[in-house]
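Hi all, posting the design record for the shared folder.

TITLE: backbone redesign
STEP: 1 of 1
STRUCTURE INPUT:
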């Protein structure tokens, strides 16, 4: 039987990419485009809670604060694509992934959220070309990814789960 390859499970948001910085930039643009106070960026970042507040709850808070000055489609666009369109993969993170690949690690992103949004981040940053695959919670029918079924998935890939970086 072949020797299993080591498996490195990686969180996406605020581990591989700075999701909060990307969302903060999207919030600043949103506020400026709708002539809303720039100082409200801190309020909206607090409401968002690093992406952990449900999108519908964030949208309700924005509508309650701004009413018609924040049109529904613009709020949905901010929440659906704002951070996803602005994330970047830093040079040091890219370098670390390349070194892990060179050392024989199998790299898999395990992330929470909506599939379309998370896959946009993965492709926008070029991570799709660096990792062996990814699991998005929505795509596997869960609100939050978990390690429960990872051993079975690892056996299929002949990999051993050795490390998991990121997330709470």
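Okay, here is what came back for every position:
SEQUENCE:
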């Amino acid at each position: 039987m072949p020797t299993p390859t080591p498996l490195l499970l990686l969180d996406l948001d605020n581990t591989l990419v700075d999701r909060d910085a990307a969302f903060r930039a999207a919030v600043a643009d949103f506020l400026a485009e709708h002539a809303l106070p720039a100082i409200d960026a801190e309020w909206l970042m607090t409401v968002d809670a690093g992406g952990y507040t449900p999108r519908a709850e964030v949208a309700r808070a924005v509508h309650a604060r701004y009413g018609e000055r924040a049109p529904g489609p613009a709020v949905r666009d901010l929440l659906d694509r704002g951070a996803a369109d602005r994330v970047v993969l830093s040079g040091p993170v890219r370098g670390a992934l390349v070194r892990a690949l060179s050392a024989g690690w199998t790299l898999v992103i395990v992330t929470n959220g909506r599939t379309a949004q998370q896959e946009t981040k993965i492709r926008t940053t070029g991570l799709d070309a660096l990792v062996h695959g990814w699991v998005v919670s929505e795509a596997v029918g869960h609100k939050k990814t978990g390690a429960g079924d990872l051993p079975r998935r690892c056996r299929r890939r002949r990999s051993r789960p050795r490390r998991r970086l990121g997330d709470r």
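COMMENT: The two ends are 35 Å apart (CA to CA).
Let me know if anyone wants the other runs.
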